[in-house]
Structures are given as structure tokens and as C-alpha cells.
Write a structure and sequence with these properties.
By secondary structure, the chain is mainly alpha-helical. It has one domain. About 70% of the residues lie in helices and about 0% in strands. The chain has helices at about 1-25, 25-40, 45-60. The radius of gyration is 17 Å and the shape is flat. Pfam families: Sel_put. InterPro entries: Sel_put (IPR007423).
Length: about 70
């Protein structure tokens, strides 16, 4: 029974991560983790400023967007 619970938790984690990525929920968290890991001691953007930067970058470099 313990193995079934472990597998169910892993599936739930992967599913939540997939949905979070599609909705953008995990982007800021991953940014913070990256900054803390690769640039310790340096400032981290607030979530508000992070999304401003992301949207500004998307507007400046639209790439292959449909709209």
C-alpha cells in the first residue's frame, strides 16, 4: 500500500507542476530558486517586478506568438 501512495504522490506532484507551468504559477518560484542558487547574496526581484520584466521582454521580442 505504501508504494501505491508514493506513486500517487509523484503523479500528483508532476500533474500540479504541469498545470502550474501552463498557468505560469511556478515561473516566479523557479526564478527565485535559480537566483538564490546561482547568485547568492544578490537581490531578487519582487514578484510584481518579475512579471513586469517578463511581459516587457515578451512585448519587445514577440517571437512566434499567435496574437
Amino acid at each position: 500500500m505504501g508504494r501505491v501512495v508514493e506513486i500517487a504522490r509523484k503523479i500528483g506532484w508532476h500533474w500540479g507542476t504541469l498545470i502550474g507551468d501552463l498557468m505560469g504559477d511556478t515561473h516566479y518560484r523557479r526564478y527565485v530558486e535559480h537566483r538564490l542558487r546561482t547568485h547568492p547574496g544578490e537581490p531578487v526581484l519582487s514578484e510584481r517586478n518579475y512579471w513586469r520584466m517578463r511581459h516587457a521582454a515578451a512585448e519587445a521580442n514577440p517571437g512566434a506568438r499567435c496574437c
